[in-house]
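Backbone-to-sequence.
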C-alpha cells in the first residue's frame, strides 16, 4: 500500500509539476545574467539638478505642517532637492513619500499629462524632443509591483521615443522618477524574474495569496522530489538481479529504455532538485521560520536615539550645510540622518555619466539610499554646522551596537 501511494504520488504530481520545474530551471539561469528593470539610485542622483538652497523660503517644520502629517505620526525621513527649477522637501513615513515646495510651502498637487512630460524632460533633457505621454497608472503594472514603488502611486508612464524603447515612471505624489525600463530589460525581465517568481501582475498584486502559492507549491515540489528519490531507491538493487526482456545482461534497475534513464537520472539529480526547491522555499521565509538579519525597529531606534525632529532644523543651518557640502562636489540632494541623539545633513556625490558601468546599486527603488560606491559627506546641525566629515566616530558606533544587541558577545569589530 505504501509503495503504491509513493509511486502514484510521484507520477501524477511529477506530471503536473514538471513544466513548472523546467520553467524554474531555465528562468533561474536567465536571472544569473539579467534581473528586473530598475532605476538605480546612482542614475537618479546623477540626473537631478544641482540644489539651489538660496530659493528655500519655508522651514522644514512649516513644510511638514503643509504636508498634513498627524501629530502622532510625524515623518521619519526628510530630503531636500529640486523639482524642475524649484526646491522641494520630500518627507516619508514608512515607504510613502510626500513633496512640499520649499519656496512657497505648497504641497505638490500632481501632474497633468503635459506637465508630467515636461517634468520627465528635465530628467532626460537629451530626449526632450522625442518624449510622448504613455499612461497614468493608479495601480501597478508589471514593473512597479515592489511595495516601495507602489507606495508612490499614482504614476505617469512616459516613453522616451528612443531606439531602446525606454519608459520612465513619474510619481504623482513626489514628482520623482522612480522606475526605468527598456525593451531589452522588459524582455529579459519576463524571461527571468517574472517567470521564476511567478511574478505576473494580477497574481502579484495580491501579495499574501502570491506568497502562499509560492510556499505551498514549493512544498509540493519537495514532495515530488522526495517521493521520487524514495521510489527510485526502493526499486534500485545493489546487485544486478533484474533480467530485462530483450537483454542478456543483468540490471540493477527493473526498467528499460527511457524509464531506465529516468530511474538513474532521477537518483543522480533528484538530490540536487530537492535541495534547490527546498532552498527556494526557505528563501520565502515560510511560517516566519527565520528572523532574518535586518535590524529591528527597536535596534534602529537605539542607533538613532530619537526620531526626526524637524523643529530643530532652521533655514540658516540648512543653507550653511549646503554651502559646506557643496565645497566638496556639486550637491544634488541632502537628507537628514539621525545617530546617537544628534541630527546631520548627509549627501552623496553624484556619479559621472561615463561611470555608468560602475554603478553597483541594484535596488529597485530610487528611494533607497545609494550604496558606498559613491562618495558621501555629512555635516552636523547646530553648533557642529560648517564641518564636513565622512565617517562617524568609531567608539560611538561600537557603543550604539552594544546597546542595540546587549546580549551578543562581541567576537570581532571591523
Amino acid at each position: 500500500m505504501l509503495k503504491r501511494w509513493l509511486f502514484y504520488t510521484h507520477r501524477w504530481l511529477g506530471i503536473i509539476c514538471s513544466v513548472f520545474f523546467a520553467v524554474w530551471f531555465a528562468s533561474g539561469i536567465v536571472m544569473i545574467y539579467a534581473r528586473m528593470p530598475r532605476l538605480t539610485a546612482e542614475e537618479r542622483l546623477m540626473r537631478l539638478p544641482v540644489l539651489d538652497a538660496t530659493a528655500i523660503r519655508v522651514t522644514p517644520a512649516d513644510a511638514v505642517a503643509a504636508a498634513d502629517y498627524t501629530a502622532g505620526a510625524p515623518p521619519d525621513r526628510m530630503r531636500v532637492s529640486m523639482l524642475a527649477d524649484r526646491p522641494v522637501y520630500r518627507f516619508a513615513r514608512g515607504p510613502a513619500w510626500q513633496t512640499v515646495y520649499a519656496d512657497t510651502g505648497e504641497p505638490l498637487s500632481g501632474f497633468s499629462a503635459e506637465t508630467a512630460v515636461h517634468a520627465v524632460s528635465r530628467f532626460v533633457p537629451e530626449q526632450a524632443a522625442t518624449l510622448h505621454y504613455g499612461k497614468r497608472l493608479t495601480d501597478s503594472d508589471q514593473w512597479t509591483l515592489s511595495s516601495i514603488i507602489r507606495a508612490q502611486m499614482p504614476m505617469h508612464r512616459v516613453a522616451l521615443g528612443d531606439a531602446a524603447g525606454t519608459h520612465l515612471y513619474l510619481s504623482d505624489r513626489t514628482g520623482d522618477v522612480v522606475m526605468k525600463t527598456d525593451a531589452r530589460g522588459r524582455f529579459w525581465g519576463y524571461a527571468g524574474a517574472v517567470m521564476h517568481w511567478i511574478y505576473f501582475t494580477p497574481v502579484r498584486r495580491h501579495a499574501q495569496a502570491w506568497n502562499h502559492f509560492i510556499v505551498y507549491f514549493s512544498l509540493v515540489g519537495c514532495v515530488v522530489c522526495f517521493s521520487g528519490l524514495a521510489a527510485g531507491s526502493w526499486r534500485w538493487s545493489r546487485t544486478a538481479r533484474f533480467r530485462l526482456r530483450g537483454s542478456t545482461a543483468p540490471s540493477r534497475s527493473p526498467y528499460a529504455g527511457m524509464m531506465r534513464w529516468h530511474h538513474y537520472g532521477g537518483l543522480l539529480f533528484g538530490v540536487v532538485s530537492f535541495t534547490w526547491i527546498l532552498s527556494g522555499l526557505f528563501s520565502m521565509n515560510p511560517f516566519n521560520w527565520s528572523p532574518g538579519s535586518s535590524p529591528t525597529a527597536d535596534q534602529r531606534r537605539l542607533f538613532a536615539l530619537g526620531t526626526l525632529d524637524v523643529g530643530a532644523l532652521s533655514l540658516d543651518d540648512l543653507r550653511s550645510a549646503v554651502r559646506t557640502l557643496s565645497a566638496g562636489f556639486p550637491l544634488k540632494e541632502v537628507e537628514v540622518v539621525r545617530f546617537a541623539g544628534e541630527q546631520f545633513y548627509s549627501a552623496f556625490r553624484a556619479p559621472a555619466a561615463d561611470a555608468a558601468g560602475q554603478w553597483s546599486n541594484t535596488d529597485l527603488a530610487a528611494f533607497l539610499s545609494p550604496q558606498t560606491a559613491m562618495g558621501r559627506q555629512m555635516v552636523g546641525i547646530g553648533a557642529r554646522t560648517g564641518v564636513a566629515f565622512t565617517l562617524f566616530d568609531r567608539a560611538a558606533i561600537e557603543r550604539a551596537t552594544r546597546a542595540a544587541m546587549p546580549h551578543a558577545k562581541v567576537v570581532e569589530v571591523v
